[in-house]
Design brief:
ANK repeats: 36-68, 103-135
Protein name: Ankyrin repeat domain-containing protein
Number of strands: 0
Strand content: under 5%
Pfam families: Ank_2, Ank_4
Helix content: 40-55%
Distance between the termini: 51 Å
Oligomer: single chain
Organism: Pedobacter panaciterrae
Keywords: ANK repeat, Repeat
Order of helices and strands: HHHHHHHHHH
Length: 164
């Protein structure tokens, strides 16, 4: 990894805004990847660096950028439980709310699987598709059942009944 990419990744991970801005000002490619295939936006989001994620998005980072497993920043925050960053990502006009990772999973499935029910509500409010099935043929309802996420299951069922 070249020194600029390394510094960009580090600044995204730690939320070093002055360094991040300096690198952005050099017209650096914001879609570079680290050794694991993570973009700076994915790294900032996964490490709960809200201001860094916001700066990256304002500077043109791809809100739908994927790592080598096909995971997006939104999927990462749904795994981790960062509602503030999820709100930021969901407010982006080009967000693909129902993007699929390499296993056919969606951000909603991550929220359900890991019991992040505040994020489940947020994703449903923004129109997440409950009917998508992953590579195992499971949808969000089936994942909620499998995981014993009773509150998530209730949220999904309420959403379905309201949107009939």
């Amino acid at each position: 990894m070249d020194p600029i990419t390394s510094a960009l990744i580090h600044a995204s991970r730690t939320g070093d805004l002055p360094l991040l801005q300096e690198i952005i000002d050099q017209k650096t490619d914001l879609e570079v990847r680290d050794d694991k295939g993570y973009t700076p936006l994915i790294i900032a989001s996964y490490n709960h660096q809200l201001a860094a994620a916001q700066l990256l998005l304002q500077s043109g980072a791809d809100v739908n950028g994927k790592d080598t497993g096909g995971n997006t920043a939104l999927m990462g925050v749904c795994f981790k439980g960062y509602a503030d960053i999820a709100e930021l990502l969901l407010s982006h006009p080009h967000i693909n709310l129902d993007a699929l990772n390499g296993n056919g999973g969606t951000a909603l499935m991550f929220a359900i699987m890991f019991g992040r029910n505040e994020l489940t509500q947020l994703l449903l409010k923004h129109g997440a598709d409950i009917t998508i099935t992953d590579n195992r043929g499971m949808d969000a309802l089936e994942i909620a059942l499998q995981q014993g996420n009773e509150q998530g299951l209730l949220l999904l069922k309420q959403h379905l009944s309201i949107n009939k």
